[in-house]
Amino acid sequence: MNFAVLSHMLALRLRYAEPPTFSVFEMVLLAVLIVAALIGFFARFDRVLRNIFTARKDSDFHIAPLGKRIWDFFWEVLCQAKVIKERPLPGLAHAFVFWGFLAFALVSTNHFASGFRLGFLDSDGWVGGFYFWFAAVFALLVAVGIAGLFIRRFFVRPIWLGRKVSIESGIIAFLIFALMVTYLGGFFVSPSSAAARGLWWSHALCILVFLPLIPHTKHLHLVLSPFTIFLSRGEFSHIPPLSGDEDFGLVAGKDVTQLVALQAYSCVECGRCSEHCPATNTGKVLNPKEIILGVRAYLNDLGPHSEEPLLGKYNSQEAAFQCTTCGACEYQCPVGIEHLPIIIGLRRGAVNTGAWEDDYGTKLFLALERNGNALGMSATERDKFIKKQELPIFDGSQEYCLWLGCMGAYDPQGREIIASFAKVMNYLGTSFGVLKKEKCTGDPVRRLGNDLVFQQLAEQNLEIMKQQKVTRIVTICPHCVRTIAKDWKEYGASPEIEHHSEFMARYQDKLPKSDGPEIVYHDPCYLGRYRGTYDQPREVLGRYGKVIDPPRARERSFCCGAGGGLAFLGEEGGNERVSHARAKELTATGASIVGAACPFCNTMFRDALAATSEAPPQLLDIAQITAQAITAQSRATSTPNGAQNP
Amino acid sequence: MKIIVAIKQVPVRDSTLRIDSSGKWIDEDDLSYEINEPDAYALEEALQLKEKHGGEVIAVLAGPERGSQTIREALAKGADRAIHIECDDLAALDTLGIAGRLAAAIKDEKADLILTGLQSDDLGLGQTGVVLAELLGIPHATIIMQVEADGSGSSIKVKRELEDGWFQHVTMPLPALLTIQSGISKLRYATLMGIKKSKTKEVRKLSASDLPQSAAATVTLERVYLPEKKKETQLIEGSPTEAANKLVEKLKFEVRVI
């Protein structure tokens, strides 16, 4: 018997069976149960909606660009791309459950309609026959998927799901499983049998019990997260401008905006954010998931109009200030929560009102107020460095303005990177100049939430840019790149800026090429996740050696610990320094060189590599590696000449 | 407690200074200014006293228009109001002249306590506070490390820094004037909320002509010049031991660095 005949026979025999008719009593009972379930659902959901809708409006929200929103919705919601990509196995299981739910939308509608003798899908008909089978395939996939997820949650128990096992999740998993079994069972009974009626009612009851369980559990994400993803802020780590004289950031419930509330209620508690958080991974108080759940608990208890501070009972100030703003959480989140605007918002609330008291932090703020650089050095030190390196002063005639940044101007290692990059630019014959006066871009204060100092620095720098007619900047620091390109926009049009890796990659064909050792490249957060620059630094490094990736690379790169102003806040608590955790990972690759592309990563790893390894790999910026190759090349070409003149 | 803090605006520390064409003052064109550091501590002390005992903090500053930036910062950090004596001739005044203006501007306030930094970072005379106290006819104490008010409003206990690690504890009646030592506490940072609030705070502007004229300056500034750099090399002769002894002697008594 061939396969076609067999499937034809099966299709004839196995047909989805529903009771042919329902009594008036059954119809009344069904109506009562549906109303009860809907009341149960809306009684709880109503408060959630009210908390979202009556929250403060997001003043800078624009629905444009619509195309990107539709694409994100298609890709992240319908295709479940992020869910699958970041955790393939559970992601796929989840995707099947999701797609199964979509397939079941029609089946469930028909299910309740037929309970009122209004069924529109006929299993004997061509459309109905096909659709019931189509749904049955998904029913199988959902059953397998949800069983897998159940096993994962209750037996494998990854720590990121939380230490406490959620009983409700078990009940929901059971309901979904039962929903599928009662559906599939319908294929093995005859329509007029008592079994068919029993299966029909069990299936209906599963849905009706499920409904009221949605609004107060993490399963609310299945209602909200499609909206959350569609209504994103539009770009990674977008920090909204403060609106009006009474807005100091997220101080209390009254400052929680609609997007923040929507996102807080969308959290599915999967713990992907915690899994990738450098603070959580090194035993700090901060757990990004708890921050989001803290905001949700606050809204549940006090609502979006309260004056009670957000930092206190519901969220810890210590945690908020342990964030390196690396953005791994926001990047990972499958339900569209934007952690950075929330964490930075909480910091803004604390700093802009003076509630945050920290010796290091105060020292940093005062240094930036007075000296205009984060290291608190005198500007004359910068002048001396420029003079010593014979760096040309920007006068408007050169192609590029080379932005030094605080690290490039004052930090010994940063200075070496600048000197190396200047050498590369000279080698390529690109004209450039440095500014006589330059202040910190304000990156550390922007991330720590000091809007006053940030505004001062941004405005002062923009004024310098205007005076000097700067149009194109290149710099060695990804933090400067991000802040100039995105954050300054709030205060004026900033010049075009690029990172030196992008510059060097563009001219890579003119740079020397040599066979070198293995180089492990560390993706800086502010170059990778913040800017999407992953390939250019690798292309540059690829000319001098074999580039290898550490276990966590590219979009999943693990922070060095310096971001978010933390480089200036002293040694962190927890059970390990973030920089040490990463340094060990880099050393373990066995590469002889660590390739860095950010002066902050560089300074963190300088100490961390030495502290965690007896024979640490050499730490070099991509510009230093390139400059060394240029030196080696010029030596090689000059040797024959030298031989001619003994 | 009503506290007045006299603050001064000085060039940002580590500025590159140039002498102006008159040779009597520095070229101010390219300079940035900030609050005189000891005055920042005086302000901090005043704010802390207010936080503990309640009352009002009033900042007073004599100087040109640019001084309003420093006044704004003081208000942002928590001062309740300010008095700005607008004048461009500070360099031409002597201590008595400046103290006279300050005294005239604040005498009607009848403050319980007047604080100033112990000296300014630019001229470093260290007398303005003391002379101001004399003009107001109230007691003063200098180089203060700590202030304790008992809440009675009639007296305070202060800790003065003496030489060589010695301290002096003094109980003195109010009203009084104290000159505050630099670095005695942790300064607070200015906040956005503070700046926004400061916009509604009162700044009373006085011009020098509103105030009674003080006597002509008895001390005048003749010339301002940068320290001359000179390089002097001395060869110390003798055996290593002798040479080392001589070197130690010179470092101790001539150059006075050890």
Concise description?
The complex is a heterodimer of chains A (646) and B (258). With 646 residues, chain A is mostly helical. Chain A has helices at 3-13, 24-53, 66-78, 81-86, 88-115, 126-156, 167-185, 194-213, 221-230, 258-266, 272-276, 278-281, 288-302, 317-320, 328-332, 339-352, 359-370, 379-389, 405-410, 412-428, 443-448, 451-468, 478-485, 500-506, 535-541, 578-588, 599-612, 622-644; strands at 400-403, 432-433, 472-475, 496-499, 518-521, 546-548, 593-596, 618-621.
Order of strands, main sheet of chain A, comes to: 2-1-3-4
What is the distance, rounded to the nearest whole angstrom, between the alpha carbons of the first and last residues of chain A? 93 Å
- How confident is the prediction overall: mean pLDDT of chain B? 91
Largest sheet data of chain B:
9 strands, mixed
What would you report as the Rg of chain B, rounded to the nearest angstrom? Answer: 21 Å
Secondary-structure element string of chain B: EEEHEHEHEHEEEEHEH
* Structure summary, number of beta strands of chain A: 8
Q: Could you describe the 3D structure shown?
A:
The complex is a heterodimer of chains A (646) and B (258). Chain A has 646 residues and is mostly helical. Chain A has helices spanning 3-13, 24-53, 66-78, 81-86, 88-115, 126-156, 167-185, 194-213, 221-230, 258-266, 272-276, 278-281, 288-302, 317-320, 328-332, 339-352, 359-370, 379-389, 405-410, 412-428, 443-448, 451-468, 478-485, 500-506, 535-541, 578-588, 599-612, 622-644, and strands at residues 400-403, 432-433, 472-475, 496-499, 518-521, 546-548, 593-596, 618-621. In chain A, α27 (599-612) links the parallel β7 and β8. The longest helix of chain A is centred in the N-terminal third of the chain and has 31 residues, at 126-156. The radius of gyration of chain A is 30 Å and the shape is elongated. The model of chain A is unreliable at 641-646 (pLDDT under 50). With 258 residues, chain B is of the alpha/beta class. Helix content of chain B is 28%, strand content 25%. In chain B, α2 packs across α5. Chain B is globular, with a radius of gyration of 21 Å. Classes of the chains: A mainly alpha (646), B alpha/beta (258). The interface between A and B is medium-sized, with 23 and 16 residues.
